[in-house]
Give the backbone structure.
Amino acid sequence: MAATTHRAPSGTRDILPPESQRWTALLELFEREAVLAGYGLVLTPLFEDLSLFSRGVGESTDIVAKEMYEFEDKGGRALALRPEFTASVVRAFIQHRPATPWKVWYWGPNFRYERPQAGRYRQFFQLGAEALGTADPALDVEMVALAWRLIESLRLTRVTCLLNTLGDANCRPQYRAKLIAYVSEHEHELCPEHQARWRQNPLRVLDCKKEPCRRATQDAPLQLDHLCDECADHWKRVRDGLDTVGIPYQVEPRLVRGLDYYTRTTFELAAEALESAQNAVGGGGRYDGLVEELGGPATPAIGFSLGIDRLLLACDADGVFAACSSVLDAFVVDLVGGWQASAVTDELRRAGVRADRGFECEDGRPRSLKAQLRAADRSGAAVAVIVGADEVAGGTATLKPLRGGAEQVSVRREEMVGAVRALIGDSRL
Ligand SMILES: [Zn+2]
Ligand SMILES: [Zn+2]
């Protein structure tokens, strides 16, 4: 009589060891880059007022219109699970009014009700950074560099940084009018989805990957050619800065990103290894109007987020940043029962050696030497430390190297830690 078993909900998954070790390694790499650039970790709630996202992300976006996990709590509040980070970070900025420039990094899960597919989950994880409080193009350069340095430290080589500018409140409206006039004339040539809804966000037809939209917009006006003087100057300085610090990029005048709040600098990291329709591992840009839009003081800002799942898929495709195979240095084999093996294991751990031990059978007796050595081998440990009756009586430990075929040795108990370290070639200590 089988009870109903539960599985992770559609579009979610469990991240188990050893895969989860790649996650911690990835986050350590990003934390290192972020800390080097003066960013501090920010943690925000997984859910916020629904209205924060509808105002902050934009009513016309797919995220808000179709994909949000909305719910009412027991107090009747309208809430939503966080679909992205930027609105939450801006809300925190407005609430706490920290000194500017305020530079923060983050990672965590976001939630969108999308059709699950490879590298796309309903609970998906992102890492990223936001910096609020200056319109200086040097900050744009720093932000693109921060994302790029992570790509470099992962040793991903087939990633391109696409760069564009979307203008600002000064020059975008005129440009937008020109684009609308153009698209109106070519409406019937667009892909079916955009024929029906291009007016909701005309810019999006420019980065539609479908052939009809590509062809129909071949000669469409581009924001790059319609910048006001200030935006043109900003754009030039961002490119000069990136050239100076050696960040490679490709100008992509059709890059618009899916969110309403972007202004001026916009960028995306595209991985060649991922399927072309969704090859972005993430991106970001300026959002100089968003803080004000959400009720704060006028505050220019820029940020980016990268999808952790996508980044790791790209690593797999490029054969880089593999999961670390070993999680243990030493495995303690207990042949006597009692507490000696636990004491040995604890001593190793306190000395910084990653150690685990064999556990007893269900009848309370130690497992056989053979069974425990099998477990030791499976654990990936480099050395087995055998605690038997002779060792306990003689105040010794037997060390059996598990890789590379060296002979086992007997050492005095007080020399055990040093001998284990020597065997595992420990350079950390
Ligand atoms: Zn402008
Ligand atoms: Zn289209």
Remarks:
- The chain has three domains: 19-167+227-318, 172-224, 330-424.
- Residues 19-36 form the longest helix (18 residues).
